Amino acid sequence: LEIRKQADDFAKFEASRVSNVILIEWMPQHDLLADSRVDLFVSHGGMAFCQEIAHARVPALLIPIFGDQINNAAALAHVGIAQVFSKFDMIDSDKVRKAIEEMLGNSSYKLNALRIHDQLAARPTSP
Questions:
Q1: Contacts for 82 with CB less than 8 Å, ≥ 6 apart
Q2: Could you tell me the maximum CA-CA distance found in the chain, to the nearest angstrom?
Q3: Which domain of life is it from (predicted)?
Q4: Residue 4, Cβ neighbours under 10 Å: how many?
Q5: Burial of 96 (C-beta count, 10 Å sphere; 0-12/13-18/19+)
Q6: Phi/psi of residue 117, each to 5°?
């Protein structure tokens, strides 16, 4: 999997104003999730991502757009490793900030991510 984002001039300008935002054309999502500095990941919640997030031990703020993403996001929220955020609320920066702060301030998301990882790791799979 890869992350692709074509940054327009406005996005580049806004990103240049803060020190903790990096715009990059491509980055392997698996490598990004494996970085110990990642405390929360924002995604649409596709099936491949759901598997990666469970193995990465990283909570997620999920913004499902269509298809299986809606059910995937609900399933991850049900086990406590994600919060579902409406795509229609993305325009409200206060709601986005509050959702992120709530997840980062609530250790249960991280603990549940660790629990789910351990359960998957302990479950043998067929070759």
A1: 45, 53, 59, 60, 61, 62, 73, 76, 109
A2: 50
A3: Eukaryota
A4: 8
A5: middle
A6: -60, -50
| The pLDDT of residue 1 | 42
**Domain boundaries defined on the chain:** 1-37, 38-127
Structure tokens at 126: 């067929």
Q: Which CATH class is domain 38-127?
A: alpha beta
Q: What is the pTM of this model?
A: 0.80
Residue 50, amino acid? C
pLDDT tens for 16-32 read: 888 887 777 777 888 88
* Type of residue found at 77: A
C-alpha torsion sign, points 34, 51, 61, 63:
positive
